[in-house]
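Possible regression after last week's pipeline update?

I re-ran a chain I had predicted before the update to compare outputs. Posting the input and the new output here so someone can diff against the archived version. Not blocking, just want to make sure nothing changed silently.
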Amino acid sequence: MPNWMTESLKYLIRCLAAMALVLLGVASITFVVTRLLGNPVYLLVGQRADQEIIDNMIHRMGLDRPLTEQYVRYLGTIMTGDLGTSRVTQRAVWFEIQLRLPATLELVLAAMLLIILVAIPLGVIAAARPGGVVDRGSQIVAQLGVSVPSFWVGLIFVYLFFFRLPWFPAPLGRLGPTLSPPPTLSGLFTVDSLLTGNWALFWSALHHLALPAITLALASAPSTYQITRTTLLQILRSEYVRTARAYGLPSRAIYLRYALKNVVVPVVTMLAMTFGYLMSSTVLVETVFTWPGLGLFAVTSMQQLDYEPILGVVFLSALFYVLAYLAADLIAFAIDPRIRGH
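New output (post-update):
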């Protein structure tokens, strides 16, 4: 086997081992925390149920077994792809997640698109002209995005652009009340309505998506902007860029051939971190905008002390997080020869 293939295989094995340990840790912590929330039996049978009914329900749900046994059974079901059954809806958790995952993915992907289209170009322009108007303005916006909670931004947006200025629809879902969802192709309403040529549905879906996506993007765009600006600024002040300028290379060639190429790895890593963060932090935004995704599902399940959906949503969010990190590591390994040398 060639040396580069051996090194690639070792690197992949290390990444997968780290991924498995992270998921095990997340599953363990979530299991313990959910058991500390309280007993869901009283919510299911009511406070006035007699003790016999309560004991039978506890036995049927397996809550009378030792925690170690419950934990081992939980890990076993996860390894087989079974996330359990919701004790409130009496439906499989994976089925409930499949119903809501497209809504969360659509929201996160829209926020990621905004971050890529706005934060990265602003970071490049700010680094090219430090102290300029774009640099100062984007720094102010970035500081506001970091310091202001996303749920507060969402509430302000709802007040301004729905209540005071009716530019956007009521924060009550993904479509207008008179419209039906498009045929399910990808689960993303904006994409499915485009694929089916339903322009009225597309504009309604886009209109409902705009405010929550902007709210979610504002909280995460500053980190991508800052890493782009800082890294590119360091590269432009480096010795090899100064040497290239001294040899008379045009600025366009310096930016494209030397500067931007070296920004790719840290920016891709930050985007992967951002994607994982967004997948696990949509709870507040989805609650504010009544967006029917995984975040709102987790909040509802927590209010009902429904263990299995909480465990399933948290575990799935962690899985997205580590998969995003894995993709970033593999891209960095393929691009940066310095990583392959270690």
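Follow-up from reviewer: compared with the archived run. Residues 3-340 form a domain with the MetI-like fold fold (CATH 1.10.3720.10). Marking as no regression found.
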